[in-house]
Specification:
The complex is a heterodimer of chains A (about 270) and B (about 325). With about 270 residues, chain A is mostly helical. Chain A has twelve helices and no strands. In chain B, helix 3 runs parallel beside helix 5 (about 145-155). In chain B, a hairpin with an 8-residue loop joins strand 2 (about 10-15) and strand 3. Chain B is α+β, with helices and mostly antiparallel strands and about 325 residues long.
């Protein structure tokens, strides 16, 4: 066998050679849910080892912000916004920032090849990783919410709503984080985008909206975490308007589906270059 | 060439930055690998081996040409590659933080095995490769060779008829290397597994491969069995002379050899025709030159010589 000139003439050669009896049987593909749960389990195990210190950082950061804001806000709606914003900030830190960094690095180092040469649906990889990062935020978010309620004298009655807020805000933010990480041409850029996304969640989510200039209020409306914050903040009131809470959560869910779809598309694009 | 299994002609031009000219990473490569063969891709860095492998595994679409694996058109259906082959890349980022055991099990599940099968195959593979004592340690805490072996283990779970391995034994100690080759041989004997192997390691290439393709600048410059390739340069013999302190250039025969020698310190390497080599050895082992001679070796050509003789552009392969 030898090298042939450019625009290989192998088609011709292929005709002259005997083909084997028929194509070989394909191996089994991995189905979506088993693959998703395998990725989720693996991601959670690596998160346990590698991310615990970062989770502490995220929680302390949020608690620190609340302590800081205690001198600025004087109870009422602003206090609710601060507590809700700080709690969701933990989700933003882990799901958006860390996931963007993870996928950025994976893409840059060629680690995606490992998944891309396995018969896995792209959605399973993205959803599994996103779900693992989102569920990893649970303890930090709960701790932050409880500490915040203590600091600002808010009722703990409706904290159960976090059961909906964490996965939905988590889906929206981790989808965004994964998409940023997979689309960024360089890992440094993925890190930068992740950090900026988190800073945006910090500024636009924690600071009371009424005091912002109009432009920033629009920006706030564009950030998916805002709706999680609003939904959570609403439940601290004496008589929460559950319809508004549900609407906010529905927006979160919608953004979540969209951003995860974009992330899945970005994964496909990054895997086959 | 009967029993055609894979043909991958690929002519790919990958565009670099706008300012640099187009680089052809693989330039009209045509190869056929037979079923059950251990086929090697040998070549210097940048020869196009990795690009070729990426095209073969469906990770990269060739600009033109076709890839046929076991009767499946991989250019038209790149997603089928994952169901036909297992790929061992050079990078382990995706697995680094997992334990060896979980990395292998997860890969098995992602290769379509159910939990029971994945666990059973995991245990079997870890035992086979002698990784069981390391099973509960995260990959990134292992040494380079151990990590490589763990990654190799992930390529073995969920049996595939084709293994594509990119430098599988880098950094491994001899025990681990032997485990790798034993595992490959066992699969070949039992299932007729085909192996496509990228390697830098000339010694390994000579001993384990059935056939080798030597790549340079995106082209196949030779393709044959290791012995067949060496025959192409069989009229040459490699002579290595090591002098005690410096070469005795006052001896005329030695001075004459200097022009064809590659010098590195006290060491001279020469490629000579057999009778020239005989004369050279006679000259340095008899007479005055012998006093200055520390050691000498006379060897038949290696694959490295083949590569150089075939006009490879690089300075030679890494020997290791």
């Amino acid at each position: 066998m030898s090298a042939v000139p450019l625009d290989a003439v192998v088609r011709e050669e292929g005709r002259t050679e005997a083909r084997p009896a028929g194509p070989a049987a394909l191996g089994p593909p991995a189905r979506l849910f088993p693959a998703l749960s395998a990725v989720y389990r693996a991601q959670l195990s690596r998160a346990r080892v590698a991310r615990i210190p970062l989770l502490f950082v995220a929680t302390f950061q949020s608690v620190g912000i609340m302590i800081l804001m205690r001198g600025v806000v004087d109870g009422g709606g602003e206090a609710r916004a601060v507590v809700a914003g700080s709690a969701v900030l933990v989700v933003a830190f882990v799901a958006l920032n860390l996931l963007a960094q993870y996928f950025g690095r994976l893409r840059a180092d060629g680690g995606l090849d490992h998944y891309a040469t396995l018969p896995v649906p792209p959605a399973a990889v993205v959803l599994g990783a996103a779900a693992a990062y989102a569920s990893f935020t649970v303890p930090g978010t709960i701790v932050t919410a409880i500490v915040g309620c203590g600091l600002f004298g808010l009722p703990l009655t409706h904290l159960w709503v976090l059961i909906a807020v964490i996965p939905l805000a988590g889906a929206a933010l981790s989808g965004l984080g994964a998409a940023l990480g997979l689309l960024a041409p360089r890992p440094e850029l993925a890190t930068l985008l992740g950090q900026m996304g988190m800073s945006a969640a910090l500024l636009l989510g924690v600071l009371p909206a009424d005091r912002m200039p109009t432009l920033l209020q629009y920006a706030r409306d564009l950030l998916p975490s805002t709706y999680g914050v609003e939904a959570f903040a609403n439940t601290f009131g004496p008589d929460p308007d559950w319809a508004v809470v549900a609407l906010d959560l529905a927006v979160c869910a919608g953004v979540g589906v969209a951003s995860l779809a974009v992330a899945t598309w970005a994964y496909r694009r990054a895997a086959v270059r | 060439m009967r029993d055609l299994v894979k043909t991958y002609p690929a002519a790919r031009g990958r565009r670099g930055r706008p300012a640099t000219p187009e680089v052809r990473a693989t330039d009209g490569i045509t190869l056929t690998v037979r079923r059950g063969e251990i086929f090697g891709l040998l070549g210097p860095n940048g020869a196009g081996k990795s690009t070729l492998v990426r095209q073969l595994t469906g990770l990269m679409r060739p600009d033109s040409g076709g890839v046929d694996i076991l009767g499946h058109d991989i250019v038209r259906h790149p997603e089928r590659a994952a169901r036909l082959l297992a790929y061992l890349g050079q990078d382990s980022t995706a697995l680094d933080e997992l334990t060896v055991s979980l990395a292998v099990e997860t890969t098995g599940r992602l290769r379509g095995l159910d939990v029971h099968r994945a666990r059973a195959e995991r245990d079997a593979v870890l035992d086979e490769l002698g990784l069981a004592p390391l099973a509960s340690r995260p990959l990134k805490k292992l040494s380079g060779g151990q990590r490589r072996l763990a990654c190799f283990a992930t390529a073995l779970v969920g049996e595939r008829p084709l293994l594509v391995l990119d430098e599988p034994t880098t950094g491994m100690d001899p025990v681990a290397r032997r485990a790798v080759w034993a595992a490959i041989d066992a699969r070949r004997a039992e299932h007729g597994t085909t192996v496509v192997l990228v390697t830098h390691n000339v010694i390994e290439a000579e001993t384990v491969l059935d056939r080798v393709a030597v790549l340079d600048e995106g082209k196949v410059i030779a393709c044959d069995t290791p012995a067949g390739l060496k025959e192409q340069v069989a009229d040459e013999v490699r002579v290595e002379l090591v002098w005690r302190e410096r070469a005795p250039l006052d001896v005329p025969e030695v001075a004459a050899l200097r022009s064809s020698a590659v010098e590195s310190g006290r060491r001279w390497a020469l490629r000579l025709a057999p009778d020239e080599a005989r004369a050279a050895v006679a000259a340095v082992t008899g007479g005055a030159a012998f006093a200055a001679l520390d050691d000498f070796t006379l060897a038949t050509p290696s694959l490295e010589d083949v590569y150089l003789a075939l006009g490879g552009s690089g300075r030679g392969l890494v020997k290791g």
